[in-house]
């Protein structure tokens, strides 16, 4: 029946359900506690604690800030309590990157990082860059100074690196609290930030990178491979990486990046990744190998033009949250760490001053933004600011590469203009009727795989009876708008199979089902939802993926 109906009739039929579907969103951020019968009779006691500095998030930036604060406190013989909360069950468990690390910020933080045993075991020995067509590759020379040059960098498993940073932080006296998800910002009466609250637990819900082990004969430790082109069309931004790691075993980390400003609602980033692995140049490496881990995350690729205001009374933004990634390099760990170091150096004199101890107002630290703007981070991001938006042109990929070759390689980002992005990623999708469905080949189970078996390798787990942390502002929007206009893009842009449209159990029509237990915390849905109706909030602490050194 589905195949015989014209598209317009099929969509109309889907949206005309006369049956009231079960409530999708039961989270307390959408259903206030005072109006939710599940909270009746619940007596909840909150525990409050105080610290000089509270850091939310145990990634490279947060840990670098914590470490630098304690280094300064020890140097100046000051008592300083630094607490760091992290939603993952252990440091590094939610960290995902096929990282090629620039060690500049690490060297600033720990000049003796080699003696300390930092897990940087694979110096880059070879760089390869290709433009892919369906069956061939066009090698592109990496000229000196271009962003893809990696001489002096290291290939790392970033989760292991973050775990090591956590160990260094604890040795210095930082209090780490893994398994605690900061869910709410607390404010003073004057509007300045006072602290954070972790989320409520105990109330029931009712009321694309991979790691492969390959044939040792194909293993080339220190080799980096990047590509652009196929399987994406020239107007869809994206590319790939494949890094040969030296971890005592023949491991490669590979991933595929798709810009979330793509326009075709039928595009699936996960399935594009599976297609890419069948390119002859990639398949030759993977054949005979074994995938051992999978994960996904969204990258903040707005770059220089998208950096928000960095400070506010009581707090500041560091690391990934304000978007310090160098987009053409696909690198952000070094800039994130440097932002944490600069934040610590700006905070320390303020928080240790006599007048800092206020019960009614949060400290304001504008010096952080000032020091960042005079640092190499700002200079680096400014120099590459036009590369990403240059791909929005009639020639797409080819126009962007021409622009990069001329204006970056020759002028080093000193153009007297700054290009603009074309708008929110969520607003770029075209209606389904204007686009051609993409026919993806079935996975072969050897090189390409189905979604659910891949998610199983992420170790993802959530307490099954908690309210789903994928919340909707309006439960009616998915069927009435997303399915009707865009043919349900959330079931394709999610790399973990969280969203699916299923028939209403009784009656006619479809409903959105959210499989929150599959969520790998990539936050793509919050960014790409064309209706901006999905609001990703933190689940109970400790839930989510359990990446083992990804």
TrEMBL record:
It comes from the Eukaryota. InterPro entries: 4Fe4S_Fe-S-bd, ETF-QO, ETF-QO/FixC_UQ-bd, ETF-QO/FixX_C, FAD/NAD-bd_sf, FAD/NAD-binding_dom. Its main location: mitochondrion. Pfam families: ETFQO_UQ-bd (PF21162), Fer4_ETF_QO (PF05187), Pyr_redox_2 (PF07992). Its EC number is 1.5.5.1. Its cofactor is FAD; [4Fe-4S] cluster. It is an enzyme of class 1 (oxidoreductase). Monomer. This is Electron transfer flavoprotein-ubiquinone oxidoreductase. The lineage of its organism: Eukaryota, Metazoa, Chordata, Craniata, Vertebrata.
């Amino acid at each position: 029946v589905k195949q015989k109906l014209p598209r317009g009739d099929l969509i109309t039929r889907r949206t005309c359900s006369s049956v009231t579907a079960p409530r999708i969103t039961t989270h307390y951020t959408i259903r206030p506690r005072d109006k939710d019968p599940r909270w009746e009779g619940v007596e909840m006691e909150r525990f409050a604690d105080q610290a000089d500095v509270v850091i939310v998030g145990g990634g490279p930036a947060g840990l670098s800030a914590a470490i630098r604060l304690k280094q300064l406190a020890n140097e100046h013989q000051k008592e300083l309590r630094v607490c760091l909360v992290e939603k993952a069950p252990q440091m590094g468990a939610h960290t995902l990157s096929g990282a090629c690390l620039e060690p500049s910020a690490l060297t600033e933080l720990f000049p003796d990082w080699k003696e300390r045993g930092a897990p940087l075991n694979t110096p880059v020995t070879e760089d390869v860059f290709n433009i892919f067509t369906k069956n061939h590759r066009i090698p592109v020379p990496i000229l000196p100074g271009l962003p893809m040059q990696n001489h002096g960098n290291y290939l790392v498993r970033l989760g292991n690196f973050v775990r090591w940073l956590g160990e260094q932080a604890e040795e210095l006296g930082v209090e780490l609290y893994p398994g605690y998800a900061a869910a709410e910002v607390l404010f003073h009466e004057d509007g300045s930030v006072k602290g954070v609250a972790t989320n409520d637990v105990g109330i029931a819900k009712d009321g694309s990178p991979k790691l492969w082990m390959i044939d040792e004969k194909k293993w080339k430790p220190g080799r980096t491979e990047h590509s652009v082109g196929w399987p994406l069309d020239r107007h869809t931004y994206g590319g790939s990486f494949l890094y040969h790691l030296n971890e005592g075993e023949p491991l490669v980390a590979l991933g595929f990046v798709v810009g979330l400003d793509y326009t075709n609602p039928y595009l699936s980033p996960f399935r594009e990744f599976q297609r890419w692995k069948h390119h002859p140049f990639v398949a030759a490496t993977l054949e005979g190998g074994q995938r051992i881990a999978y994960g996904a995350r969204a990258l903040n690729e707005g770059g220089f033009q998208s950096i928000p205001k960095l400070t506010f009374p009581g707090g500041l933004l560091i690391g990934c949250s304000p978007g310090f990634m160098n987009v053409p390099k696909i690198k952000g760990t070094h800039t994130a760490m440097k932002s944490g170091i600069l934040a610590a150096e700006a905070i320390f004199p303020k928080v240790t001053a006599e007048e800092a101890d206020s019960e009614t107002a949060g400290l304001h630290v504008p010096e952080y933004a000032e020091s960042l703007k005079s640092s190499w981070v700002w200079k680096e991001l400014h120099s590459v600011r036009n590369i990403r938006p240059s791909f929005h042109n009639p020639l797409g990929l080819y126009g962007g590469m021409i622009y990069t070759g001329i204006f970056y390689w020759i002028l080093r980002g000193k153009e007297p203009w700054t290009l603009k992005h074309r708008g929110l990623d969520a607003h770029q999708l075209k209606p389904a009727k204007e686009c051609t469905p993409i026919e993806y080949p079935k996975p072969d189970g050897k090189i390409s795989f189905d979604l659910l078996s891949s998610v199983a390798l992420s170790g993802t787990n959530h307490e099954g009876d908690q309210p789903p942390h994928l919340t909707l502002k309006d439960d009616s929007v998915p069927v009435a708008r997303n399915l009707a206009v865009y043919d349900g893009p959330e079931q394709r842009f999610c790399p973990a199979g969280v969203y699916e449209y299923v028939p209403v159990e009784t009656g006619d029509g479809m409903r959105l089902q959210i499989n929150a237990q599959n969520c790998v915390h990539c936050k793509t849905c919050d960014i790409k939802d064309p209706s901006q109706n999905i609001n990703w909030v933190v689940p109970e602490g400790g839930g989510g993926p359990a990446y083992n050194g990804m």
